[in-house]
Amino acid sequence: MTAPEPRTVYLADYRPFSHLIDRVELTFRLAPQATRVAARLHLRPNPDCRGHHVLRLDGEDLRLISARIDGHAVDVTPDDTGLTIPAALLPDAPFVLETEVEIAPEGNTALEGLYMSRGMYCTQCEAEGFRKITFYPDRPDVMARFHVRIESDLPVLLSNGNPVAHGPGWAEWDDPWPKPAYLFALVAGDLVAHRDSFTTASGRKVDLAIWVRPGDLDRCAYAMDSLIRSMRWDEQVYGREYDLDVFNIVAVDDFNMGAMENKGLNIFNSKLVLASPETATDDDYARIEAVIAHEYFHNWTGNRITCRDWFQLCLKEGLTVYRDQQFSGDMRSHAVKRIEDVLALRARQFREDQGPLAHPVRPESFIEINNFYTATVYEKGAEIIGMLKTLVGDDGYRKSLDLYFDRHDGEAATIEDWLKVFEDATGRDLAQFKRWYSEAGTPRLSVSDDWQDGTYTLTFTQTNPPTPGQPEKAPKVLPIAVGLLNPNGDEVVPTTVLEMTETTQSFRFEGLAAKPVPSILRGFSTPVVLDRASSPAERAFLLAHDTDPFNRWEAGRALAKDMLSAMVTDGAPPAADWLEALARLAFDDTLDPAFRALALRLPSEDDMAQTLHAAGHVPDPDAIHAARRAAGDALAARLAPRLPGLIAALTDAGPFHADAAAAGRRALRGAALHLITRTDGGAAARAAFAAAGNMTETTAALSALLDIGQGEAELAAFETKWRHDRLVMDKWFMLQTLLAAPDRTAATVERLTRHPDFDWKNPNRFRAVIGALSANHAGFHHASGAGYRLLADWLLTLDPKNPQTAARMSTAFETWPRYDGIRQALVRVELDRILSTPGLSRDLTEMAGRMLAAGG
Ligand code: TRP
Ligand code: ZN
To answer: Taking a C-beta distance cutoff of 8 angstroms, is the pair 677, 704 a contact?
Structure first.
């Protein structure tokens, strides 16, 4: 096989498709090695494209059996990427194209198109998987009504839309809503349903079903409950009702990503559906709730209104992430949710934006679109929506969204359409704001203040650093939420949004009695790196008094980061003011336990590497690891006397509740257990492991033991108990890798990859071990280069089978320009080795090439 020429696709080259498709009829005769797909496309020339055109259809790995136009056989031969039907063979009027192809789902290890997962047929078509099913214009702006017939002996046969008829060995589905091919889905298997129903605001009853393997039926209740709450919330908050008679969710074990919003038939990675207290942690519950909501919300933001082309991906993803974040905040705690989202934003998106893979939220070119399902498109895309809402206000936002749904329902829209809706609804000019979509990179914001005669002045300066392909940048619109406290800790100026549009800008506050303490960037109102030198005393003051919960947490975070930085760069000891501040907070029962748990969590090693790098240092992974452990030990010693009491007070008797309050208590209890384990030789954690009544407690105790190099017996007991449960065993694999000591990380991973249950073709298992390897910062960046080598070996093993997941995992290397010359040289060897491998996928070629380009 010769490597395909990597072709770059440009936003600027967009042209509408030559034809429109009114209706698609598909018939599947399922067989593992030879599935037949018969397609009838009802086409007509697109009136917007003048002239008589050829018809170019996408198609990959399809064996063409026959092709007919209006019933007459046509003699056409596909090439590697599709099928061209010459203009001479095409009527200049509506016509029907019939094709039949053969495909082999059993051999499809890429998990894109129609594939098999443990005996079950399923599909993944986003972004460009439909072309592996049949010849079709596989682009989101071609929207058509689909009618699907499935023939198979398997008992459950599902597709999009409403069920219309079924008999022994067949079923037919009809989707009344025009949709692009990427939203097509088909499932066939020996499945059972957890059922419920939902009555919409206008009184239509919708049958809900979550389809799983027979043994998993008792783990669907939380996902179903989340779905029903999502449906109600979208009606109440966005006025969006569901629009089919049925809504089906299917859980599959082999899946490249989290989940997929196919119309009326969402397909999920089973880890984001199945939960019971014994098998799922509180974090799992929270993610299930969020992803169920996310995929459901796509029904309007993604499906009813879709994207014109894949450059507009953030149109659906940024908005839908924003909506799922709002939902989780409403269901749980807005403060805690915002802190968690900002932690994730910094860990994944800032990291991406400050490295060689930085790209605009709306990219302008790509080689492989699968490589652009990124934290930037998703999470920074969501931050942009949040900024828009801050700028136009709640009412302006609601008006704009109403207009968006009204104006673009049934369309494939663009970012220009999206912004125009806000301009028309609110009268605001968003020309400068649009730079957030076109310019990559995390802006840096520095602040200075001045106090004179009762006037307090804040002066901000923004810098927009260069990113690959974008050396120069103009200032952005930054909504900076600010509040002022007086020296007693009372709020004298409540939260005010300052709109910064210039490179340097001052804002004045008059009539104050004393010099205030500023609380800047409340709620993290714009995604920037804030540079503000501040004293430990002021940070401790805000940690104690800020009325904005996000900034309260942020003050503690800054205190910890300042301290860890000084420990790494100057060998400073753990700071007394940090220890005292955390000691007050840890035992302050007036505060939400979930908030206290977050405040006790030290910045991650990767976060410290990012922070040190941004401050102009070359981060030393060993020194960061040592400093973080020393800080943790000091905190443990400081808090130790009162930790047993805290743990006892947080121990809930009675049945398990998954709600945020109960989860927050378990989180704080886990944090306390983690700390006490640093001081008691593991006694408390061993007891907690033995007494654990749910998976949250089990993993908290096991992690605490692994963190001090113990837990052998507990690992063995865990394995014996859960050997037959794939999702639970993923945790067993992951924790050992994440918590291995730096000197032993590579050896631990090698041992785990020899375990009989290390099924590397399963993406969850691959991520549990190889993904965790790169998440173990000091282990991955070990100066021997063993971590780098091991990752590259496994990427090269996976790439021929599953290029999408291999490329995604390769981003572990994206931070390499941060580190010292020795480590850089070691990474360069691995990236060179990857790139020079014959037959490397387009996916991994693009990623390794972009990362290597950063080396100059
Ligand atoms: N649209 C999905 C979501 O965010 C993402 C997704 C699921 C996906 N599976 C994929 C993207 C496979 C690319 C390839 O909800
Ligand atoms: Zn999505």
So the answer is: yes
